[in-house]
Amino acid sequence: MELSISWLAVVAATAVGMAIAWLWYSDWGLAGGLWRKLTGVTKEDSERAGKRPFVVLVASIVLTALALASASSVASGFFGSNSPWVALAVGLVAWLGFSLSTLAQHNGFEQKPGRLTALNSAYQLVLFLGMAIPIGLLP
Question: What pLDDT sits at residue 3?
Fold first, then answer.
């Protein structure tokens, strides 16, 4: 079995991931206001943090794209299918087994609001599945 990563798919998945993060967490986005309320992070706090959170976001999304592309390549080789459905299944399993479980553990022990865990977990699900689409579609 050969690991085959489409760098075009990784770049596209990274762009999709950044767009999802922006649409989800921006102040005018789907959940930015609720996220601020649940975390207590103000606009001023975000301004004081500078570019560091953005750098972390970009790096983590690139790593997520690489991990999803690698896992999709392995799964495609195993199943003998390069279907976009394989990439979506990989995204779902990765979210369930790594993201949701880890976030639920941390947030539970840190006693964060259940709504925050649900909000961030939903984001991660949309992120993983959204990034899996170009990985599954691009050669």
Answer: 87
94 class by beta-carbon count within 10 Å (0-12 exposed, 13-18 middle, 19+ buried): buried
Query: Is position 93 within any domain?
Result: yes
In the prediction, which pLDDT does 87 show? 97
> Which domain range does residue 16 map to?
7-137
The answer to pTM > 0.90 is yes
Distance from C-alpha of 51 to C-alpha of 73, rounded to nearest angstrom: 33
- Residue 118 is encoded by which pair of tokens? 């649900």
| Structural domain total, the chain | 1
Quote the pLDDT of residue 1. 65
- Residue 41 located in a structural domain: yes
CA atoms within 13 A on the CB side of 127: 28
80-107 tens-digit pLDDT: 888 899 999 999 999 999 999 999 999 9
Residue 130 counted as domain residue? yes
Any domain includes 88:
yes
CA dist 92 and 42 (Å) reads: 32
CA–CA dist 121, 124 (Å, integer) = 5
